[in-house]
Structures are given as C-alpha cells and as structure tokens.
Amino acid sequence: QVQLVESGGGLVQPGGSLRLSCAVSGSFFRPNIMGWYRQAPGKQRELVADISGGGYTNSADSVKGRFTISRDNAKNTVYLQMNSLTPEDTAVYSCNVQGYYLGREYIYWGRGTQVTVSS
Q: CA angle 98-103-108, nearest 5°?
C-alpha cells in the first residue's frame, strides 16, 4: 500500500517560516510529479507548487520568491520551504503525488496539515 505522511504545519507569526514535509512510502511505488496544494476557508483548493522527478518546478504567482519546493528522491520525500509568511497563506496544505504503482498510474493525496499565520 502507498501512504503519504505530512508534517511541519503549525502556527507561525507573519514574516516567519515553516517547512512542510511529505514522505511517501510503499513498495514498488515510483513517484513522478510531487506537489503541494492548499485550501483556505471559503476558497477553492489551489496548486501551490509542484516538482518533477527531474527537478523542474512550477509554483503559483502568489508564492514565487517566498516558497521553494524540493524533493529527496532517495527518501521519497517532497518539501515546501515557506518564507515571509502572511495571514493570506493560512490554509490546509495537502501533499499530492502522481506516480506509478505496479505498472499503473495513480494520484495520491495526503490528509493535509494546517498552516496558520497569525500574530
């Protein structure tokens, strides 16, 4: 079975930083694109950033220059370094992984981790 375990969320003051981690486990699973989405109350879920197996990245305009996505393929883990956080970044952040398991394509979602930016 494939499992995604997210960590690193919490409460931080405006201007602060957090680093989210998402570790993917499961024999025979080969992650391809890994990314982070977020959903704030009353808002639709949106892509924050994603990264390909080769290290190519995309990110939302609202986070460019502040957030950096990276991955450690040896650990099957994707990270989101979030700097200069603002209250508008408050949301549930969910890990999303597209990959291959036993020769078939799958998309997996984590349960989400709360990020709250408040003074």
A: 25
